[in-house]
Amino acid sequence: MKEIFAGGAPPAPAALAAKVRTLAPSMTRSMQRVAEAVAGDPAGCAALTVTGLAELTGTSEATVVRTARLLGYPGYRDLRLALAGLAAHQQSGRAPAVTADIAVDDPIADVVAKLAYDEQQTLADTAAGLDTVQLGAAVAALAAARRTEIYGVAASGLVAQDLAQKLLRIGHVAHAHSDPHLAVTNAVTLRAKDVAIAITHSGSTGDVIEPLRVAFEHGATTIAVTGRPDGLVSAYADHILTTSTARESELRPAAMSSRTSQLLVVDCLFVGVAQRTYETAAPALAASYEALAHRHRNG
Amino acid sequence: MKEIFAGGAPPAPAALAAKVRTLAPSMTRSMQRVAEAVAGDPAGCAALTVTGLAELTGTSEATVVRTARLLGYPGYRDLRLALAGLAAHQQSGRAPAVTADIAVDDPIADVVAKLAYDEQQTLADTAAGLDTVQLGAAVAALAAARRTEIYGVAASGLVAQDLAQKLLRIGHVAHAHSDPHLAVTNAVTLRAKDVAIAITHSGSTGDVIEPLRVAFEHGATTIAVTGRPDGLVSAYADHILTTSTARESELRPAAMSSRTSQLLVVDCLFVGVAQRTYETAAPALAASYEALAHRHRNG
DNA sequence: GTCACCTCTGGAAGGTATTTTCAGGCCGGG
DNA sequence: CCCGGCCTGAAAATACCTTCCAGAGGTGAC
What we know:
- The structure is a homodimer of 299-residue chains.
- Chain A is of the alpha/beta class and 299 residues long.
- Helix content of chain A is 57%, strand content 8%.
- Chain A has 13 helices and five strands.
- A five-stranded parallel β-sheet of chain A has the order 2-1-3-4-5, sandwiched between helices.
- The longest helix of chain A is centred in the last third of the chain and has 23 residues, at 254-276.
- The N and C termini of chain A lie far apart (65 Å).
- Chains A and B meet through helix 6, helix 7, helix 8, helix 9 and helix 11 of A and helix 6, helix 7, helix 8, helix 9 and helix 11 of B.
- The structure holds a DNA duplex (30 and 30 nucleotides).
């Protein structure tokens, strides 16, 4: 019995097609049919059992196993695993054109992929563009603050609320305002040692700038979270945190990516404050979980 | 030779780690050990037989098979194939860069990097784990809806508001409710052709389940956006959209990544509806920009 | 505290897939 | 025409996967 060893190489990576071509001359006719099928449709063959592949190629199980051996695998089982890997690999190769804008007739799966990709991109941009010195200063101010007021309207208003919710959970006195009148009324009461945060993508939202200006003039420490650091809001901000500005399109309003960006900044502020006030933050967070437990029903 | 083709959803793509995290809470201890091993070292596990994996995890073959089933595969054999594919996949896209948890003494720059990475991961997991058929059905229901009511409390409440805001901007009648009493009162008024959406990470938030149940019983089409598709909320949902569940830590509450995940899902719903109602959505969106222009000051 | 019930779990039986064995057939050479 | 070697596939043997079942462990009710 002659054993043909296909080189001392380990099983085989993704270069299966090449290996098939190299070894084809040393194969018998039946084995060539099997090898051909395998190289031609890895994904399809990975779904077949040894019997199935034998039938497909008009050969026998024994031949399939022999072919697998010749290709360098211990048996068909391992060839099949490699085939599955190869299939996954070359599927990942054909990357969908996620860079394109979302079109009206895009299938829903593409919409998901494109949105996810864009938001990931926004996060990366934001992280890269965030000034850690400014962020550190903002965190320090927040951690030392007696109370914190956060101003934002529309989409930014939700970000403001998000931050307020989280700060409250670690025992930090914070409140979000969406009503411009109440916001100004509130800003008047601020003093030194208080912090005011304005969140506005455009940097020119009057309803948010106004309360920040008032807070600034009353001596509070002011922070602006904005996509336009050159905007009007910056005039009244001690610390400016820049969010990224992604391109928008008809079907994807700017609010979408600015929100993602703002939330990351706000999360950073939160975690930074939690770090600095860990002694009180950790128990407060635990207590808030505890307090809400009974509001969840167990099935 | 028996070939069994399951008519339902396709087994599962490369979103295995996400699926493990999503389903982990509904798993038994032994199954969790298996799932953990599988998610932690796909390549290694792909090389093991049922018996091998059972020994490695200190469980039995039966448990391994049960876990494979729970993850959506017909049996261990298919899980193993998927694992091989996943291994090949993540080898090509090298650098898994497992981020450490955020520590109390992490410098602020690390906090930014880790948070950004985690949220990106959450987005990828969510996109991979989202059932596009369910999503499509939900979009269709929304697009045809007379009006839409969205229920969510705390962090999920903000997501609910975000969706409502956006739908309103394209001329879709939508409203978000955070007050449980008002939500139930509101749900009572729903009929067929109306849509109710419940957003809850835990899937067991009574204050949100209750209005959805009422809406469901009054004949409205109901949608659940939840991280626990096996939760109580699903009992009253016509369509279930699963958000991803990321590990949380002391300094990084679950609310953070669940929010990111929920927002992506909600964005997909929005864009889907905008596509389907493009004729009215596009002008409405343009008009909303127009209407807000004067609220921005030019410097 | 005890009991009943339900769920989880692993051992072992049962089935399927893979591997090995082996005998028959094809083909070229004598 | 006969012989010998090699290829080939059927079937046995084995390994692997799946299913079934009974015991263990925990939980809630009384």
